[in-house]
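protien #1 (seq + structre)
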Amino acid sequence: MIYLYLMILAVYFLLWLLSCREKEKGPFRRIASYLLYRQQRIERGKHNWKKDLCRRQLEEKLKRLQPSIAVSKQVRDYYLTQYSLVLIVVFSGDLLCLGAWVSAHSSPLLIDGSYIGRNSYGSGEVPVELSARIEGEEEEIFEYLVEERQYTEEETEALYENALEILPDAVLGDNQSLEDVWKDLELVTGLEGYPFEIAWESSSYALINTDGTVNNQELTEGEIVTLTAHFRYKQWSADEQFCVKVNPVIYTNRELLREHVKELLQIQAEKTKYDETMILPANLGDKAIVWKEIIDDGSGYLLIFIIFAAGVLYWSCGRELDQKLDRRKRELLLDYPEIVNKLALYMGAGMTIRNAFLKMSEDYRKQSNGKRKYVYEEIAMVCHELQSGRSEAEAYDHLGKRCQVQSYIKLGALLSQNIRKGSNDLLQMLRQEADNAFAERKSLAKKLGEEAGTKLLLPMMIMLCVVMVIIMIPAYFSFL
């Protein structure tokens, strides 16, 4: 995996070199600009109606959100933002994966392919996962516990009073019954909840040792072994005997090979138990054993997660654009009664439609304080069109088309029709439209309130559960 992580970094470095001439700010935005340029060069001359349709839809959405900015610049900024965001996520994720790999491989337990460091006395065993590859055989995997370094007899006597070992309670271990024993027993030295000390004796240590080890690899038929348990509590003692039938183990060739390797590990562990390191067996008969430590490296899964997160992030950018359009439409609907009412008010005061739009645009520039409102941005666009020489009828029609809201389409058609044909009832029609708009705004506000109540339902249920837990727990403990 390290080569994959380094290759990704090399690709980023190469892209950084290729994008040095780009004028964008920031390395990732320059790389995004270079990739966008290369993509346009590749797609130049190729016509894909699906991509063209998606691009036109994107242009329409962006133009609706910011009509005062050139749509080509908005599309470029949109793609640059998306590309740079994905590049940042993948780069950061690759660094995390590289760090995880280095952390996992920085302190291996297997040294020079032959040594495993032991823990000092009292530090516990060292769990290690190893793979053994024997010449001409399949690779075998072992989960092995390297015991902590043992002390000499003199050291053991000095530390004996501080050494208490608790073994499992069950005697059978993985066996089904004492009449059919072919796996190691667990001969406990104490029982939980009882003050006894238990010592074990066996009638055949070659078959069952006092630590419960069952040596039945060389058995050809079942044998009976008598186990004696000595219970001791202060001055009290008692003996209990029971018979155990040890049956031979049936091994496959693969299992037999595995057992031979385990025996070699046990022999080496016994030989080097007083040493700082444990030397692994190098040969099995005339076949060489190649040891390799199996390191739990989860950085590859982290990379997959990072790439998936980058894809989700890229997809969410498109969703965010649709959400902005929904908020724009809602804001336009909420501001519509105010716009119609102002038009009726200014026209009632003797202003023309043109002057009424200019007045609203001027007031917006003076009072906005940096706060952007979509409807007044559209009115400012109408004023720019009028000042650039476009006819009033066309400017009002464009207002409705840009807003893409039925109310503004109706208002634009009403104003442009009045310019083309003339009408004495325009002021009355605007006042009536204002009354209808306020009624629609009331119904919209009611709908938004119902939606807000629905969204609050889940938090309210969670709070109810929390309150019930707070009440029930003290009541429950009061009965104990």
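ok now protien #2
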Amino acid sequence: MNPILIIAIIIISILLLFFLATYVCYVLVFKTTKKQKVYEEFSLPDGKIYLEYKDQMLNFMKEARTIPFEEFEIKSYDGLTLRGKYYEYQKNAPIEIMFHGYRGNSERDLAGGIQRCFSLKRSALVVDQRGHGNSDGFNIYFGAKEKFDVVTWAEFAYQKFGKDVPLLITGISMGASTVLLASELQLPPSVKGVIADCGYSSAKEIIKKIIKQIHLPTFVFYPLIAFGAKFYGKFNLKDANVTRALKNSKIPVKFIHGTTDDFVPYTMSEINFNACSSDKSILLVEGAGHGLSYLVNPEKYLEEVKFFND
């Protein structure tokens, strides 16, 4: 066989394997599946750490379904329909706009947040992030695009509920990192602060951490994932650098993290806290796993976040 043809076949085979590998990585990390438009069953996060709190989480979700709400739809900057539910404590009360985590949904991740808001005399606008729950989309961007959705929801609330109604942007896990990324953007003047519960420092660092956790080489797989994001997802993971964004943060931030979080290490919140240029404080909840700080120590949690009412 012609040596040039052999070389060409080898090069083409390598390229095909590369693009196949990057596509598989892209699907596994960034793609979501078609979602039910109505949650018929209660869903709980996977993992042994949640078993102790299963009944309490189920009660939060069941109770949330009994609370009157109003459904809203908005259009994202790139044309997706995003959906959320508004639970009013009372007219003109401060509103928390709440964002859930990676592959979660507003009911699973934020049901307890509604009750928490009510206990603080706040209303809650809980939203399904793009690609999740009842919102449109089939991609997850780790905050790189979702941060602009935070601005759109805040602008919607600013116009809908009145310019004198205080707004807070709140998130858990990926939702926390998303609202932190948005803290450097141009938000409505009624946005008074951020509550960020167990957010990561950057998409790059959390993805590399998970690769290591499943005992794969980061120097091989992270470049494949990053290329897949660019080539198939049309976005850059560098745009989800929370620590960098916080150097330009314009509003006060409350960081919260459990000290036994083995998914997003609490040290990532410490890194974010140190980078933040605006007014800031941090609560580390002893013994709390990922997303469990409120369930582990609700009294301390409420005490730490109620200062936004002042």
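The mean pLDDT is 94.
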